[in-house]
Specification:
The chain is of the alpha/beta class and 159 residues long. It has helices at residues 42-53, 58-82, 84-87, 115-122, 130-136, 143-146; strands at residues 3-10, 16-24, 30-39, 90-103, 108-112, 126-128.
């Protein structure tokens, strides 16, 4: 049975959030139903790159994480508005977060982004933190090896 899902990605270039509406069986089939890119404004992009490339105070990392999470919420809202007929069929969100540190050879990776904000604001379960499971198992954190990793646990939808 197919599931309609939203997939989210924020690349290390810091240009914005890519959101995709997908039809999937959760294992092998992935059909693209629509998508968009919601660019970050210049201030958030600059701060995100600072967090990713420099040692900054933890409070700044947390502030940026909150803003990045809220930006992802807005990307999903815009995507679902563009595809209103499918919006009510969405069952789950896959949220990669934004990579701020990654050294698979050292077994280290960190993505920022709070799945609980997305789940609360969008009333959908959110699966996140894909890379850590793979890196902890000796992988590189890439898609090919993540497909073989243990499944992630979704954050329950807010009531």
């Amino acid at each position: 049975m197919a599931t309609v899902a939203v997939g989210l990605m924020s690349g290390t270039s810091g240009d914005g959030v890519d959101a995709a509406l997908l039809d999937t069986d959760g294992e092998n089939k992935i059909g693209f139903l629509g998508g968009l890119t919601l660019p970050y404004d210049d201030d958030l992009r600059w701060r995100l790159l600072e967090v990713s490339q420099h040692d900054v105070p933890l409070m700044e990392v947390l502030r940026v994480e909150k803003e990045v999470s809220e930006h992802h919420v807005e990307a999903v809202r815009q995507l679902l508005a563009q595809h209103a007929k499918l919006a009510k069929k969405v069952e789950i969100i896959g949220f990669h977060g934004h990579t701020v540190r990654h050294s698979a050879s050292d077994g280290i990776t960190m993505q920022i982004g709070n799945p609980w904000i997305l789940s609360r604001d969008l009333a959908l379960p959110v699966v996140s933190d894909f890379r850590r499971c793979d890196v902890a198992g000796g992988g590189q954190g890439g898609w090919a090896s993540m497909k073989k990793s243990s499944p992630a646990t979704p954050a329950p939808a807010a009531a």
